Amino acid sequence: MESTSQKVLQIGSILFSLAGVVYLLCEAISAYAWSNPSYQYAINYISDLGIPVVTQFMGRTINSPLYFVMNFGFFANGILFAIAYFMIMSALPTKRKMIGLAITVIYTIGIIMVGMFPGYDWWGEPFHGLGAMLAIVGGNLAILCGGLMSHRIIPQKWVSTLSVIFCIAGIISFALFLGINNNRYAAVFERMSVYTIMVWCIIFGLFVQVKSRRMNVLNDARNIKV
Predict the structure, then answer these.
(1) How crowded is residue 38: how many other Cβ atoms within 10 Å of its Cβ?
(2) Domain boundaries, the chain
(3) I need a surface site. Which of 16, 193, 206, 224 has the fewest CB within 10 A?
(4) What does the pLDDT look like over 152-161, one tens digit per residue?
(5) What's the Cα-to-Cα distance from 84 to each of 47, 52, 53, 62, 207, rounded to whole Å?
């Protein structure tokens, strides 16, 4: 029989994977809808997908028919990420989990700001930039904390190692993006700094789901023997 904590882990793991999948799916759908001009992943920023008007911004022509899909992706990812993180970290007895939870709140606020304030030339653009910084830095630090603390629930060293690698790659990519912001292909580094978070969500969610189910099988086997 499943314990309450194991059920929480399983639900949280599903929400984690869903957070990454929903975001990437919304991005792909929004990008596919572009036709005049076509969307280019190596040139156009992620934020271009959420702009609700046809405009020129930083030398790029913006025309995103399904801008609301991308903005929904920002909102949905932030909410799902926060719920999943809180559910999984609730299984930890340590007070150090509060650091990860606090950073998760910062990430969630940031990515919701990204969706609320599209990134083009208007009064809300500074809030978009602030939200993007909170989301990217906060998100990469959140996956670092989540990976490092997860061994207290399900001991697997590779998860902690992968989380460290993803966090470092994400932060470095964001720094490079800021450094070459006016470069034609700066969007490549922007994507790398965000995709580390989304891919980690999917991998970590699947990992916790599989491990928590195995824990249930082992517990059931022990109960039968008793």
Answers:
(1) 10
(2) 4-200
(3) 224
(4) 776 678 888 9
(5) 24, 30, 33, 33, 14
